UniProtKB/TrEMBL annotation:
It is an enzyme of class 2 (transferase). Keywords: ATP-binding, Carbohydrate metabolism, Chloroplast, Coiled coil, Kinase, Magnesium, Metal-binding, Nucleotide-binding, Plastid, Transferase, Transit peptide. This is alpha-glucan, water dikinase. Residues 224-278, 299-353 form the DUF7067 domain. It comes from Dorcoceras hygrometricum. Its EC number is 2.7.9.4. The keyword Cell membrane does not apply.
Amino acid sequence: MSGAVGNNLLLQYCFSRARVEHKRRINSSISIWRSTFFHPQASSLTHQPPLSTQLHGQRLTVKENILRMGKQRAVTRSSQAVLTTDQSSQLVEKFSLDGNVELQVDVSSPTSGSVAVVNIQVISSGDSLLLHWGAVKPQNKNWILPPRRPVGTMVYQNQALRSPFVKSGSNAVLKLEIDDPEIQALEFLIYDESQNKWYKNNGGNIRVNLPARESRTISASVPEDLVQIQAYMRWERKGKQIYTPEQEQEEYEAARLELLEEIARGSSIQDLRTKLKSKDDTSENKEKKFSGTKSNIPDELVQIQAYVRWEKAGKPNYSPEQQLKEFEEARKELQAELDKGSSLEDIQTKISKGEIKTQVARQLEKKKFFMRERIQRKERDVMQLLTKFSSEPKEQKDSSEAQVLSAVQQFVREKENDIADPVLSKKTYKLADKELQVLVAKPPGKTKVYLTTDLPESAVLHWALSEIPGQWAAPPLSVLPADSVSLDKAAETKFSTYSVDNQPYKVQSIEITVDDQEFVGMPFVLFADGKWINNSGSDFYIDFRAESTKVQKKDVGDGRGTAKSLLDKIAELESEAQKSFMHRFNIAADLMEEATNAGELGLAAILVWMRFMAIRQLIWNKNYNVKPREISKAQDRLTDLLQDVYRSHPHYREISRMIMSTVGRGGEGDVGQRIRDEILVVQRNNDCKGGMMEEWHQKLHNNTSPDDVVICQALIDYIKSDFDIRNYWKTLNDNGITKERLLSYDRAVHSGADLEAAIANCMGYKAEGEGFMVGVQINPVPGLPSGFQELLQFILVNIEDKNVEALLEGLLEAREELRPLLSQSNERLRDLLFLDIALDSTVRTAVERGYEELSDAGPEKIMNFISLVVENLALSVENNEDLIYCLKGWNLALTMLKSSDDHWALFAKSVLDRTRLALASKAESFHQLLQPSAEYLGALLGVDQGAVDIFTEEIIRGGSAASLSSLLNRLDPILRQTANLGSWQVISPVEAIGYVVVVDELLSVQNKSFSKPTILVAKSVRGEEEIPDGAVAVLTPDMPDVLSHVSVRARNSKVVCFANEGKLLLLKPSLQIEMQEDGLESLADTKIVSSEPPVALVRKQFTGRYAIRSEEFTSDMVGAKSRNIAHLKVKVPSWIKVPTSVALPFGVFETVLSDDVNEVVATKLQVLMTKLDGGDFSALGEIRDTVLELSAPPQLVRELKDVMQQSAMPWPGDEGSERWEQAWMAIKKVWASKWNERAYFSIRKVKLDHDYLCMAVLVQEIINADYAFVIHTTNPSSGDSSEIYAEVVKGLGETLVGAYPGRALSFVCKKNDLNSPQVLGYPSKPVGLYIKRSMIFRSDSNGEDLEGYAGAGLYDSVPMDEEEELVLDYSSDPLIVDNNFRSSILSSIARAGSAIEDIYGSAQDVEGVVKDGEIYVVQTRPQM
C-alpha cells in the first residue's frame, strides 16, 4: 500500500528526516523507499518527497501530516458534523431478478446521527455476488462514490464501487451505511462472477430512494492525530487495501465523519482518545518494541541504515512487523559499531561507503501492492490494429556493379578475385582523403599480405615482424620483397605503381609472403612526401593469428536475394568491428543510411550481422580497452538511427524493431551502464584485464541487473582462493543470492526485453542513493495515456505470477495503450519502442510459464490464451490483416462456446487451421528475407554452419509465434474430439499397400515413376499436383480440399490419401488409419500395373468456323464442358441461372498457327516440339511462352465479335484495342496450357498421344460472385449416392480448385432432405478472389470427356482481367454467423446439384457461384 494510509502511518514508525551530511542525497533515496520499500515497483513509477516524521526520545510516535496520501499536502482543517434529525420509517422493496432469484432491499434511518442503513438480500443466490453501485446526488450527473463502504469494496475504474456480498445460507446479504444527507438514492447492478452474469432491472439500473433527511450542524472539531489513528483503524479493518490518492483522501474524511458522529452522540474528545488508544493494541505493542531500546545512535542514521538494509534485501514488500524489526536491526548494527569505538562521524562515513556489516538475505517472496483482481480491458475495434503496406520486392539488384569504386577498391577486388586461398582479414584505413587497404590471405604454410594505397607520392613501407604482439623484429632476408632494405629491427620496402582499368589514378601496392614460423603479426608505418604516416598516433598492426573470416570464393555463393554489396562491406569491416562493441555499433551506425537505401534487404543485412554478434558467433572484444560509457554512446547512436528509420519508413518498422531488440537500448541514462561501471571498478581493483572478464563485462552492456556486481565479486573471490568453489558461493550467499535465484536468470543478450528497465526509462526516475544509482535522472516520457502508470504497476506486481492469464491481459492492454504513441512524433520514441519490445517479449515468457496452468484447462481458457497471443503478434508485425481476422475468428469462437453453440468446436478448428497457415506464411516470409543474407554473410565471416542453418528458425522461436504454435497444438486434439473430426480425413476411400517414401513436396515427384508400390508421405500438397506413377497412396499433414484436382485424381486413380519411413503399411480407409507392418512383403513386391484404364484420343478437325454460339455446340466442335452448359441452359429450372456462352471450337489453334502471320512462331514451335520429343522437358515452358507470341487473324476477330454480339455478350474491343488484346492474350494462355507440366505428364501416364489433344475455348461473362461452390452429387469420401457433398468459398472458385492454401466450407445433404444441410467444416482459406465485370476463357479439351480418365482440371481457365486477392474476414460473413442465411444458401446449392443430377441421370461434378442469393451454374461434368 504505497502512498496509502497504512504505508504512510507505518513509515512514520520507521523513518524521520535525515539531518546528517547526506541529507540532500539520501532524501531522494528515501523518496524512492517510500515508493518501493512497502510498494515494490520500479523506482521510476513514483516521485514522492521525503516523509515528514519525528522521533520523541526513543519512542516512535505518529505526528502531524501522517495521512498525506498521494501528493504531499497538509490536512489541517476544522470540519463540522452534518447530522440528521428526522427519523424515517423503514422502506422495503422487492425485485425479481431471474427465475428463483429475488432481491429484497430494506432502508432505514436511525433516530440519531445521519447514517441511513441499507440492507440488501439476494435470495437463492450464487456464491460470488458483487454489488456494482454508486450514489445519486441532485447536482451530480454521474454516480458519486461514498467514502463509507463495506469491507472488501473495490473502486472500479473510478466510476463505481464493487462490494462483495456475504453468504448466509442460500442467500447473500450486504449492509451499506450512507452518512451523506445529500445522497438521495442508491443505484446498482448485481454481478455473479462465477456465471459472468449481470442482474438488472428491466435492462437498467436498480434504484433505491433514501428517506429524506433534514440536516442540522453541530460545531465540533476533532484533533488531527485522532483522525489519523481512526483512518489507520479503518484501513486495518478493510484488510489493508491498496488505495489511490483520491481514495486515501476519502478514507481520511470518512474517518473524520465517524469521529464527528461519536461527538454528536455525546462522546468527548478524551473519550475518543481513550477508546482509540485501547483499540490500537497492535500499535502499542509496536511502540513497546522500541521503548525498551536504549541507544545513543541518532534516529537519522538509523533511518539511513534501515534503507541500506532494505535495498540490499532486494527492496521487498515488508509487513508492518517486519518494517519495525528492520528498523531495530539497523539500530543494533550501528550500536555495534559504536561499541567498537567508532565515533558517530565514523559511522556516518561508513554508512555512506556501505561499510557497515549487515546480515540480510535477499527477499524472493511474492510482491503485491497494486490490485487484487484483473485489469478491466477497454473495448476496442480490432480493426484499429490493422497495418497494411505494399510489399517490396525481396530480390535486390546487386549494387556492387553500380557502386562507384575507388581505384584502391577496384584494384583490391580484382586481386581478391585472383586469390584462391582463404582470406584472413581485409581492412581499410583512411589517410586523410586517401586510403590504405590491407588484405591478408592464408595459403598452406604461409601468410600473404597485400597492401595497396592511392597516395600520390612514392611511398615506402617501414615494417617488421612480431614474435609477440606489437614487437618490432627485423624480417628474415628470405621474406624481403624486391626493392627492400634490411634495418635494425625493421625493413623498408618501396611500393610498386600499377594502373587500374577505367580509373584516372594509379595505385601503389606491395605483396609480402611470410612463412608460418614463430611470427604472430606485422607492425608497420608508411613514409611518403617526407612525412611518417601512422594509425592515428599508433603503429599499424596486422594480426596473423585471426581465424579465416572467409572461405573459398566458390563456397560463398552469389548472394542472390541479399543486399550483396552491403554484406561484402560488412565482411570487410568485421576485423575492425570485433575490437569492441563500441567499434561494432559505430560501424553499424555508419552503414545505416546505405542499409536503408537498399531497402528491406539492406536492413536484413544489419539484422543478420547484429544477430551473429548477439549469439556469440563473432568476436566481442579483441584486446581493446574501451570505456563502457563509450560503448553506451555508440549503442545510443545506432538505436537513434533505428528510431529514425522506424519513424520515417513505416513499412520497415517490423525489421527495425527486430534490430533494436538485438542491439539493446544504450544511452547515458541507462541504469545498466551504472551497473557495468560498478563491475568495471571491481575488476580494476582486482587487476582483471582482458580475457573472460572483459568479454563478460561487455556482455553486461546488453543485459544487466544489480546482482551482476555481486556475481563479479564472487568470481574474483573464487579465482583468488585458488578456485575454491566454496568462496564463490559464500560471496553470493552473504549478499542474498542463492542457487535458485541464479537459476532464474535469463542471460541472453537481449536488453530490449528488460521490462523493468524499459518501464523505468519511460516513466522516469531520479536516484541519489549509494553505489551504481548515484546521480541517475531520467524524465518521464511526455504524453503517456491516463492510467498507464498504474497499468505498468499491475504488470510489475504480477510479473512472476504462476497463473499468467491476468498478466497477459495486462501486458496486452499496455501494448494497446502504447500503440498510438508509436506512430506519432515523439523525441522519446526509442524508449517507447524498447518498452513495447519488452512487453512483447514478456508475453512470450509468460505464455511459456503458463503451460502448466493449461495442463488441465478446458478449451475456453486455452482459446483465451490463444486470442491474447494472436493479438500480441498482430501488434508486433506489419501487414497483419490475416492475423487480425484470425483474432476476430477466435473472439467469435469464444462467443460461440460461451453461448453453447453446437458448432463452436467446428468453427474454432477452422480458425485454428487458418492461424497455422498465417504462422507458416510469416515463417516463410522471414526465411525468404533473412536466410539468404545469413548464409552469404555467414560464409564470408566463417560463422558456424549449424548457427547459419537454423538462423531464421531461431529468430522465429524467439518470438511469440512459437508459443502460439504450441498453444494451437494443445487445442487441436480437444477440438477434433469435440467436433468428432477424427485424426485423419479420408479423401479417396480405397485400400493400398506399399513402401513409404517421404518427400517435402508432392510437386517435386509428380513426374517421377516408382518401380514399387509407393506410399508417399508429403509435407506439402497444394492441390493441383499430378499423382506420380507407382504411387498407391498420398499421406499429408497439409489440407487439400476434397474437391481439389489432386483429390479428384486420387479417387479416379484409386489412390488412397496416409507414414513411417522405410516401413510397409497396409492402409484401410476409416476415420483412423490402420497400420500393418508385418507379412506384407509378398504383397508389395509385385509388378506395378497402371491403375489408369485404357483410353484413346480422337484428333479433331477445324470445321471452318472461328467462333460459334451455344446452340451450335456439338461433339465435333467443342468438348463436354461446353456441350453440358448448352444442354443445361434449356433444361434446368428457372431458379438456376446459366451464363450465356460462346466458343472457339476445336482446330482454331492449329489454324491460327498455320496462318501466314504466324510463320515465324510456327517454325520456332516446331524446333521446340522436337526438343520436347527428345525428352528435354524444359521445352514445355518455352513452348508456352512461344504460343503467347501468336497474332490473331482478322477473320477470327470478326467472327468472334459477331458471335458474341449475337449472343448479347459484351465485345471487349468496344472498350478499346487494349481490352481486345487482353482478351486475345487470355485465349492464348488457354491454348498454351496444353503444355503445362501437370497436363503433359498426365497424358503420358495413360499413354495418350499428346498431338491428338485438341483445345476448344469456352467464353463466358464472369459473374462477380459472393460465393463459389463445387458439388459432387455422390459423396466422394464415402461413396454414398444418397448424399450430396459440396464445398463453398468466398469470391471466385479458383481458390477452391486451384493451389490456394486452407480449406473451404464443406457440407453434406441427404437427397431426401435437401433442407437440412450438415456442415462438416468451416472455411480456413485466408484469401478470396474478386474481379470486376469481365470475361473468362475456359479450357475445353477433347481429353476431358473420356470415360475413366479424369482429364478435367488439367488445363487453365483464364480471366481477361487480373483477379484481386483480398484477405477474408469470416467473423462478419453471414454464411458463418447467420444460421438461417447459411441454411438457405447451402440448401439451394444442394437442390441445384440434385436437379442437375436428375437431368443427366448420373452423378455430377458441378461448379457454380452464388450472387445476391441466386444460384448460377457455370459448368458440369460426370463425377469421376
